[in-house]
Amino acid sequence: MKTVRVRYFAILREQRGLDDERVATEAATAGELYDELRALHRLTFPRDGLRVAINEDFEPWSTALRDGDTLVFIPPVAGG
Amino acid sequence: MKTVRVRYFAILREQRGLDDERVATEAATAGELYDELRALHRLTFPRDGLRVAINEDFEPWSTALRDGDTLVFIPPVAGG
Amino acid sequence: MDFRLTGEAIDTAALMAALGDTRAGACVTFEGRVRQENLGRPVRALDYEAYLPLAEKEGCKVVAEAREKFQLVGVLCVHRTGSLALGDLAVWVAVTAGHRPAAFDGCRYIIDEIKARLPIWKKEHYGDGESEWVNCAAGGPARPPGRGKKK
Amino acid sequence: MDFRLTGEAIDTAALMAALGDTRAGACVTFEGRVRQENLGRPVRALDYEAYLPLAEKEGCKVVAEAREKFQLVGVLCVHRTGSLALGDLAVWVAVTAGHRPAAFDGCRYIIDEIKARLPIWKKEHYGDGESEWVNCAAGGPARPPGRGKKK
């Protein structure tokens, strides 16, 4: 069991109903954590519509979680 | 015999030594007039390095001259 | 710093003054402004929300890439956060170079990459009172499946 | 008028204000400035000489072409004549459009055509006291045959 910090922005912040939380998890990777949170909070975005940042850098979904990491799931950006 | 006005700019003005003159000529076209003036004043530009404007519009070298026309021989422009 | 985010109005005159450099024969700027309409819907205002540290880091990376790809003299880029009204300046990019092709190409590279890559989100407020997060083809569906327009 | 020539310093702030339009989401500007060096020679100043009526007519034509080719909202273009010092603004083009591709393409079209087509000539004054009319590949030899550098 590790504890990570998750921050939410924009549409994910609204879906989650908060912008910052500590999460205790058994998830091994960033991707597993997102799937867990998605199911728990009924987030609508499939993982492949998002990117993930860990400790302020974009990282692959397969990145192993470490205790104390800060994760941000990045919804699609405006682009226009 | 017709009389036309010729204006000179930039390097042609310096080569001719004046910026405006009236010319009485037998030349039938703008191109013939340029060749005449080029020989007379030792202008260095061959005709195909220039364009000609007649009465404030670019025109082909083959344009027939009419009495009272104003001609400008356009040296290459800066471009850069 | 070549790239930064700000919650205040962007003062382009002051920024331009900082780009004066007699090695530069060309300066190209891009201004992105709040339009009165998007995809046929009248817009009355919008909010930009950014994940600040990553947006700044990624913005600086984009600028560094542009400097590597093109022969640039100077670059400045500023992106707004917070609430903007119609006509407000949302993002500003200025690039100087010896000659104009590099200035045009560098400016365009920067704005295209910034729009596609930086974690900055736009919420549009429409004339009818509705609001919506504006998404883009780069990242996922235009609207998450199963959700209607959110207020 | 969309295009004009001026013997005075170009006031870009006033010109930009005239381009405010909430239909425009993008504004691209190009500034051409006097560089300290050209083809390896140090430049200290330059003069622009124009055949005014034709330059204005051709400049307006270029702008009209750009408006026809691209979806533009507004265009302003000003070209200097007379004596300019290092760093001075020689030509300024600003184009607004709904979206950025049209603004970039329109601005670049205008500056490229203006540089190639308008009867405006540039005389550079160099650090060593010499001066030269700057010609271009579009029109003829870089220097007329048989003539040296002119003072």
| CATH topology tier name of the domain at 3-31 and 52-118 in chain C | Aldehyde Oxidoreductase, domain 3
* Strand percent estimate of chain C: 35-45%
The CATH architecture of the domain at 3-31 and 52-118 in chain C can be given as: Alpha-Beta Complex
Strand tally of chain A is 5
Integer-rounded radius of gyration of chain C: 17 Å
The main pleated sheet of chain A reads as: 5 strands, mixed
Give the name of the CATH architecture of chain A: Roll
Task: Find the CATH topology of chain A.
Answer: Ubiquitin-like (UB roll)
Index terms:
A: 80 residues; alpha+beta; Ubiquitin-like (UB roll); 5-stranded mixed beta sheet; 24% helix; 30% strand; globular; C: 151 residues; Aldehyde Oxidoreductase, domain 3; 5-stranded antiparallel beta sheet; 4-stranded mixed beta sheet; 28% helix; 38% strand
How would you describe what is shown here?
The complex is a heterotetramer, with two copies of chain A (80 residues) and two copies of chain C (151 residues). Chain A is an alpha+beta fold and 80 residues long. Chain A has a single domain, classed as Ubiquitin-like (UB roll), CATH 3.10.20.30. Chain A has helices at 10-16, 30-41; strands spanning 2-7, 20-25, 51-54, 57-59, 70-74. A five-stranded mixed β-sheet of chain A has the order 2-1-5-3-4, with helices on one face. Chain A is globular, with a radius of gyration of 12 Å. Chain C has a domain at 3-31 and 52-118: Aldehyde Oxidoreductase, domain 3 (Alpha-Beta Complex). Chain C has helices at residues 12-17, 52-69, 100-117; strands spanning 3-6, 26-33, 37-38, 41-50, 72-80, 82-85, 89-97, 120-126, 131-134. Chain C is elongated and about 50 Å long. The interface between A and C is medium-sized, with 26 and 31 residues. Strand 2 (26-33) of chain C pairs antiparallel with strand 2 of chain D.
